[in-house]
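Subject: for your reference before the review

Hello V.,

The reviewers asked for a structural picture of the protein, and I figured it would be easier to keep everything in one thread rather than splitting it across files. Below is the amino acid sequence we used in the manuscript, unchanged from the supplementary table.
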Amino acid sequence: MNVIFDMDGVIFDSERAYVNAYQTLAPKYGLHDRDAVHRACMDSIGVTREKTRQIFFEYVGHEFDYDTYREEVSELLRKTDYELKPGVYELFSWLKQTGAHIALASSTREESVRRSLGKAKLTEYFETLVCGDMITNSKPHPEIFLTAAQRIKAEPESCYVIEDSYNGVRAAHAAGTHPIMVPDILQPDEEIRGLAEVVLPSLFEVKDYLEKAALDENQ
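And here is what came back from the structure prediction:
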């Protein structure tokens, strides 16, 4: 079995921390239209830092000092210890026991990914990490998942992708994988339900789903 995981919002309960950090600093930077900032935050979930910059510019204009703003956001986040999503260890332990090939495909930069996984002692579970600063095209482009599949020597159609974001599900579908959505902040709309193979409430249900899939494959 081949399984590719997103990180933020799937493994770590971090999406709310990102959005809260953006909005906490909004008044300091003169971003008084909280609704616009919130939309920008929602639209940027699951994409790279460069894509997030472009999204913010669409809402607040190119004169906005996004780099300084983002650095302060990053400083707030570095002080935050993210909680693991329920079912993380149970799912990873089971996958490891079955000999599954596991990859990470996160839009977050490699330095931050390794720091977060290291703190949680999860690095050992992954055969490969594909991070936002390793790719050219941000989600919803399928590059990150195609790269992850290639690195674990798997065909995309044999891979399950665990995602929480709209752009992540879009990218996983475009890559020809089996997208499993575990919603975090954003609940799936009609489009995303149509693109996902299944929508499940937590990683515990993901484990049950993959166990059944593994049984079906072996019959």
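For the response letter, the relevant points are probably these. Strands lie at 2-5, 101-105, 128-130, 159-163, 178-181, 198-199. The chain is about 50% helix and 10% strand.

Happy to draft the paragraph if you're swamped.

O.
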